[in-house]
Specification:
This protein has helices at about 40-50, 65-70, 100-105, 110-115, 135-145, 200-210, 220-230, 250-260, 375-380, and strands spanning about 5-10, 30, 35, 55, 85, 120-125, 130, 150-155, 165-170, 175-180, 190-195, 235, 240-245, 285, 290-295, 295, 300-305, 305-310, 310, 315-320, 325, 330, 335, 340, 345, 350, 355-360, 365-370. By secondary structure, it is an alpha/beta fold. The protein folds into 2 domains: about 5-270, Spore Coat Polysaccharide Biosynthesis Protein SpsA, Chain A; about 285-380, 3 Solenoid (UDP N-Acetylglucosamine Acyltransferase, domain 1), CATH 2.160.10. Homotetramer.
């Protein structure tokens, strides 16, 4: 059972800033990219990186997420001796108990990790969109003889207050970690992807678990404690596309990014595939009067209207004379005749009545339509 490296994938986020999209759904389970869910990207990275021992830590509204993950078959993680294991919150003494923070979620699963006696532990977030070979991160970790390696990338200065910021020396050794600073010293942001030497991390987790004043969080507690103790923390500079789809605007932007021809993240990359379940819908049907421009159209779609710079998930129907512009339609959406949607996100299985007109202004968040608000928005929204 000895494994060099164990991966822990944090997938319990509520994603409250995504509003209606996560009202009854964990953020990692939110549909993305026409046929995927957000967590598919991290799981596919694990497969492509040959990281086959994966614990998925779930918490908030996990039903659909658990159904989607199953035993990990789409990512070749349905294995006998390692593979994928779903780890729901519990304690041996009191049964069910919420994870109190990112570090606490690992602490409560020390027994799961210890059975593999790993040298290294990778901690990932299950709610980011990116492609990464985790072996490159691990190789740098070994070369630097680091205790901790944190994957990082440069973000726009105006967004530094949203991230943990790494202050480093020229050789990327981290001497300070600032969690969401109001005035950052640089713009090198943590991606929430860590590699730890397991024997060292275990010591800090056990000490943190008895600290009643701790938030039990990596960014707020564990990493600052390691820096204070002069442990060897290094940054790994990631070059590529990465998106934290934490808001309605960023979720919409990430879909529009997929339509850019020069985007580094490509869903058609044969050397680094993104895997998910195949629902086996019939091929798309494009009507004789339909016009489609620079859009992603998935299986099961029946299109009789005009689609421009939009992403249509599986089994979406668009009626005659309807125009869909810069919008995202999730699985099973139904759009009637003579409808205009621009900068709109239509949730799963929502029906848009005939002659509806909904246009979100460019300086406003895209409009999210659910079965609960469609009648109100259809009557009250104007461009």
């Amino acid at each position: 059972m000895k494994k060099e490296c164990v991966t822990m994938l944090l997938a319990g986020g509520a994603g409250k800033r995504l509003g209606l999209l996560t009202r009854n759904l964990a953020k990692p389970a939110v549909p993305f990219g026409g046929r995927y869910r957000i967590i598919d990207f991290a799981l596919s990275n694990c497969l492509n990186s040959h990281m086959y021992t994966v614990g998925v830590l779930t918490q908030y509204s996990p039903l659909k997420l658990h159904q989607h993950i199953g035993v990990g078959k789409p990512w070749d993680l349905d294995r006998m001796e390692d593979g994928l294991t779903i780890l729901s919150p519990y304690t041996e003494t009191s049964g069910g108990n919420w994870y109190l923070g990112t570090a606490d979620s690992i602490t409560k699963n020390i027994n799961f990790i210890e059975q593999y006696d790993p040298n290294y532990l990778i901690v990932l977030s299950g709610d980011h969109i990116y492609h990464m070979d985790y072996n490159e991160l691990l190789n740098q970790h070994k070369e630097k003889q680091a205790d901790v390696t944190i994957s990082a990338l440069e973000v726009p200065w105006k967004e530094t207050s949203r991230f943990g910021i790494l202050n480093t020396t020229d050789d990327l050794r981290i001497y300070e970690f600032e969690e969401k600073p109001t005035s950052a010293k640089n713009n090198l942001a943590s991606m929430g992807i860590y590699i730890f030497n397991w024997d060292i991390l275990k010591q800090y987790l056990e000490a943190d678990s008895t600290n009643e004043s701790s938030n039990h969080d990596f960014g707020q507690d564990i990493l600052p404690a390691m820096i204070l103790d002069h442990r060897k923390l290094y940054a790994y500079k990631f070059e590529g596309y990465w998106k934290d789809v934490g808001t309605i605007e960023s979720y919409w932007e990430a879909h529009m990014d997929l339509l850019r021809e020069n985007l580094h993240l490509s869903l058609n990359n044969r050397n680094w595939r993104t895997y998910s379940h195949d629902s086996n819908f019939a091929p798309q049907l494009i009507g004789e009067n339909a016009v489609i421009h620079h859009s992603l159209i998935n299986n099961g779609c029946i299109i009789s209207g005009n689609i421009d710079h939009s992403v249509l998930f599986e089994n979406v129907h668009i009626g005659d004379g309807s125009v869909i512009i810069k919008s995202i339609l999730l699985p099973g959406a139904r759009v009637g005749d003579n409808v205009l949607l621009e900068r709109v996100i239509v949730q799963e299985n929502v029906t848009i009545p005939n002659n509806t007109r909904i246009v979100a202004h460019p300086d406003e968040d895209p409009v999210v339509l659910s079965n609960d608000n469609i009648a109100y928005v259809s009557l009250g929204e104007e461009d």
